[in-house]
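Bit of a strange request maybe. I'm writing a small parser for structure token strings and I need a real example to test against, not something I typed by hand. Could someone generate the tokens for this chain?
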Amino acid sequence: MRLYTITLLLLLALLAGCTHYAGIIDDWVGHTEKELQEKWGEPDGRSRRGKGELLTYERYWEDAGGTLNRGRLKFLIDENGTILDSSKSNFPDYLFGDQILSRP
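Reply from user aminoacidic:
Good idea to test on real output. This should exercise your parser:
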């Protein structure tokens, strides 16, 4: 029983170090562009979408082989500055925090 408890605690500690990017960006829906920029800074790209805008943040991550990869996180903002939707491209579902870089 003790070995089971120790194994479970180690597994939970390992999972706590993972960052689930899909969850992180989905959590921004309903917040404001101002709040997003206070946390993440100015976006790397900005384009008009109807009455709103699409903000793009580029983030870099290393795969298990040490290759540097670039992914994009996008946020759809309405005319009032509220985040309506978010998406990611070229990101695995889970990354460890030390693999995520703002810039290479």
